[in-house]
């Protein structure tokens, strides 16, 4: 009896050892513990730069702890605040936060992947093929920025040449693709690049279409929003009395202007442009328009602008947009003898639903009359905000 018990215990222990060994072998195979020493020389490798990086291999998801040799079929996803670098030969592909890629070929001399979502910075020395939605990008000896969002894809070439969707692009050119729309080929705007992509560009040793000074200045402008916008002499004579504008809020009354006190010194105000409400309503956004929505929803961070006595909210908006390179569309309406703000940064009324459009507020108040009828005072704070729901209710405006 005792002997049988010992045999049973031995069998149980042996079974535990076998199960543990199988577990170690399985985990080692999944994590690449048993890859040959020369694997890094022939296979692309993924490295976690910061934050949490999820890697899915053979249907099993784990966190990328440090570096790992990649295989075809691996999927990498960067969580919020995370970054990862995929290296192959002298080339690399950097994933920004919320970016996700599927590796389709992991060989150093023949790397290819599909960008599923988010922003990616690509420095291609060897031949690289990247699929973005239905578009194929082929690059070599080039530096490219990529973005895949809901319903749209954008590609910008910083250096060299790349082919996307069968169209050759050179440094300084960009392509935008949206569902049910023709491709748009245009010049690459520095203001369209996120902080992540600009930071990646700053690490490049290649001669890019943007100078190092321009990249640094763009980040400095964003990080120091209290820059004063000077008044140009030819702008000083502009006045709301000649160019009144209709209300961009739901109500159109032009009565009730506040009294303004004259000042002998050049006054300043603060202006900000934001469309962060769109980030919560992307399902309602017109296809392709998300290419113009900054990742943080801030088109223009709070910026101090000078103005002359008698100038209006519209005057300052127009001047600041001109000097900051922000597209501003407006038209003159003879019936009202006024100007109407049609869009800012390529975002227009009804682009994100039937109740969407631009509104403005001054010192926390949404005036019930047009922006070119609001004469500014020293220290006023202007915020242009894009409403998506409730005719302004989602940005604190009145719907009455």
Key attributes of the depicted protein:
alpha+beta, 400 residues, 15-stranded mixed beta sheet
- What structural category do the secondary elements indicate? alpha+beta
What's the SSE pattern?
HHEEEEEEEEEEEEEEEHHEEHEEEEE
Query: Helicity, in percent?
Result: 10-25%
- Largest sheet geometry: 15 strands, mixed
What's the total helix number?
5
The total of beta strands comes to: 22
Mean pLDDT: 80
Q: pLDDT under 50 segments (min length 5)?
A: 24-28, 231-263
What amount of the residues lies in strands?
A: 35-45%
End-to-end gap: 90 Å
Radius of gyration, CA atoms, in whole angstroms: 28 Å
Tell me, briefly, the overall form: elongated
Structural features, described:
- With 400 residues, the chain is an alpha+beta fold.
- It is 16% helix and 37% strand.
- It is built from five helices and 22 strands.
- It has helices at residues 2-31, 39-42, 195-202, 212-223, 313-324; strands at 45-50, 53-57, 60-63, 67-69, 75-78, 83-88, 91-95, 100-107, 110-124, 128-132, 135-149, 152-164, 167-170, 173-178, 184-187, 268-274, 298-306, 328-333, 338-344, 347-348, 357-362, 381-387.
- Strand 11 and strand 12 form a beta hairpin.
- Helix 3 (195-202) packs antiparallel against helix 4.
């Amino acid at each position: 009896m005792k002997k049988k018990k010992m045999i049973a215990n031995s069998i149980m222990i042996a079974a535990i050892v076998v199960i543990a060994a199988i577990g170690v072998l399985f985990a080692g195979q999944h994590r690449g513990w048993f890859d040959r020493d020369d694997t890094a020389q022939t296979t692309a490798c993924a490295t976690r730069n910061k934050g949490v990086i999820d890697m899915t291999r053979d249907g099993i998801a784990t966190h990328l702890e440090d570096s790992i040799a990649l295989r075809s079929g691996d999927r990498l996803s960067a969580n919020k605040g995370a970054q990862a670098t995929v290296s192959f030969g002298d080339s690399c592909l950097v994933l920004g936060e919320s970016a996700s890629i599927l590796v389709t070929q992991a060989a150093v001399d023949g790397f290819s992947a599909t960008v599923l979502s988010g922003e990616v910075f690509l420095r291609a020395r060897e031949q690289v093929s990247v699929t973005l939605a239905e578009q194929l990008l082929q690059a070599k000896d080039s530096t490219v920025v990529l973005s895949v969002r809901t319903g749209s894809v954008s590609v910008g070439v910083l250096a060299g040449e790349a082919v996307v969707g069968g169209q050759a692009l050179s440094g300084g050119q960009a392509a935008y693709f949206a569902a049910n729309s023709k491709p748009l080929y245009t010049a690459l705007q520095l203001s369209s690049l996120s902080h992540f992509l600009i930071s990646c560009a700053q690490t490049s040793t290649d001669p890019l279409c943007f100078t190092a000074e321009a990249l640094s200045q763009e980040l400095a402008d964003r990080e120091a929003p209290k820059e004063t916008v000077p008044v140009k002499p030819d702008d000083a004579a502009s006045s709301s009395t000649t160019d009144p504008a209709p209300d961009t809020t739901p109500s159109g009354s032009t009565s009730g202007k506040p009294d303004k006190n004259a000042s002998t010194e050049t006054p300043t105000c603060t202006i900000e442009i934001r469309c962060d409400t769109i980030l919560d309503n992307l399902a309602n956004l017109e296809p392709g328009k998300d290419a113009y929505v900054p990742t943080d929803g801030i088109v223009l961070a709070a910026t101090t602008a000078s103005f002359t006595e008698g100038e209006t909210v519209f005057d300052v908006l127009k001047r600041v947009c001109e000097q900051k390179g922000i597209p501003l569309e407006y038209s003159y309406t003879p019936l009202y003898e006024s100007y109407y703000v049609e869009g800012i940064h390529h975002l227009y009324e009804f682009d994100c639903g039937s109740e969407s459009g631009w509104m403005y507020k001054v010192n926390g108040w949404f005036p019930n009359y047009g922006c070119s009828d609001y004469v500014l005072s020293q220290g006023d704070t202007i915020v242009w905000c894009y409403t998506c729901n409730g005719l302004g209710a989602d940005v604190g405006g009145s719907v009455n």
